[in-house]
Amino acid sequence: MKLFKKVREICIIGMGRFGTAIAKTLLEDRENNIRLVLIDEEEKHLSPFKDEVDMIYVADCAEQKTLEAMNLKDFDVVIVSASNNIEIVAALAEIGVKSIIARATSNRHAQVLKQIGVNLIVSPEEEAGKKTAMIVANPTLTLYSENMVELQDGFVSASITITNPDMIGKKISELGFRNKYNVSIMMIKRDHKSYIPEGDFEIEDKDLLTFIGKLENITEVFELCARNDKKGKK
């Protein structure tokens, strides 16, 4: 018997590029059991989602009475993706919203948001800038990396498609990524299906491997995985 999974009510305020990306990602997973509500001051930003989400509102969310009328206090999470958001966050905190996620455009902005009640602060521009700098500073990552994410303490996760014929048909345990390079395989994607592999998992041509490890170690592993690739034969 399936256990009942509580519906999570999520609201996104501000449907620019950042808010749109969040909404699309949430909508891609039809099993996440959420009720999604979108708010923006301009109807044109909301119209692409009118048949996809539970409710859309054209409204100025800096007004406390407006937020109260939409019962946002009862939502599990309110995401404020608009960059000019201090008044909106203050109004949300004032009506008693318990979980607020907001976008910050600078360190000072982040400090102010934290002081007025934001639970989680995201800085997409800063994160994108760091990621781009890391990639362009390293020729191997520039050529081969897919979906690189900076983690903590110098660790990253990054993905690469296997092209080295010496790795095809080998088990993960035989390749010794953990012992030789101090990196771990988090996931393998093959023919649109993803796996969390164990040591006896065999690598096939064009598998997409996602690694986690220190940046310098990931780079070394990528050079191995990409050998005999048309862009960079060794």
TrEMBL record:
Source species, domain of life: Bacteria
One Pfam match: TrkA_N
InterPro entries xref list: NAD(P)-bd_dom_sf (IPR036291), RCK_C (IPR006037), RCK_C_sf (IPR036721), RCK_N (IPR003148), Trk_Ktr_HKT_K-transport (IPR050721)
SUPFAM superfamilies according to UniProt: NAD(P)-binding Rossmann-fold domains, TrkA C-terminal domain-like
Ranges where the RCK C-terminal domain occurs: 143-227
Protein name per the record: TrkA family potassium uptake protein
Origin species: Metamycoplasma neophronis
